[in-house]
User: What shape does this take?
Amino acid sequence: MINKGLSKVAIFFLYLISLLPLGLLYILSDFIFFILFYVIKYRRNVVFDNLKNSFPLKSEEELRSIEKTYFSYLADLMVETIKMLSASPQFLQKRYSLTNKDLIDKYESQNKSYLIAVGHYGNWEWNTVVTPLTLKAKPLIIYKPMNNEDFDDFFKKAREKSGTLMIRMKLALREIVKRKSELTATVFASDQTPAHGDAQDWIQFLNQPTSVFVGLEKIAKSTNFPVVFCDIRRVKRGYYSCDFKSVCENPAETADLEITKKHVSLLEDRINQEPAYWLWSHKRWKYKPQKVNE
Assistant: This one.
């Protein structure tokens, strides 16, 4: 009961903070960056090791520069996610553009549902609110729920306020089948670390063996829904774009891991272009492989 009460209080204060103008929140972000980077040194060893292993040809000076930019971005992402709690969908839409939408329009004009792969890059949270304002299809976003039920419910409602439907990962296939007569756009995190029991395999990603979730590929093959990748780019502070790129038109005709390797490769290209805006503080390589698919 005490924990539940504390959660409610924390949620209330997060919502109050979200009412501040974004400019003031970025001042708060600068303070958060200082605390994370210089005071508590939050997961700095994890971040630097991940960067060093991913970019073996970069100098320590280059890696330290990326590390510092990453923590500044991470602080921005924190306050931007808080802002999402009270911001109107239209406010976020002005700061989040979707490009190459002709690819999506083609599927929607044929009343064909499709799957979207997206990475933990840039601001993927705002995407959950902006997407329903732009697409004709109903966005179904596959996610892993938070451990705290109160926070999970609170953030779920914030993400769903413009029409997105958040679906727990274990219910993904069931929900897609249930809505097979509807026009849907099902969104998967392409770089999610597979949990024990998840459908997974191993491939090379950022110069190291990496476990990858293959649920998207399995669903693509079973439904034959085309797959696209949402290439998120940070335009400048508080502004993002998502460029849709084709991954596969006919999944049923593909070889094993072909779809997975393609959307992971597209994410890798984005990270190589601008490394600082991926989630480096995540322990992405905590599991070691027995076999790697090249």
Summary: Residues 188 and 216 are 7 Å apart (CA to CA). The mean pLDDT is 93. The chain is about 45% helix and 20% strand. Residues 60-84 form the longest helix (25 residues).
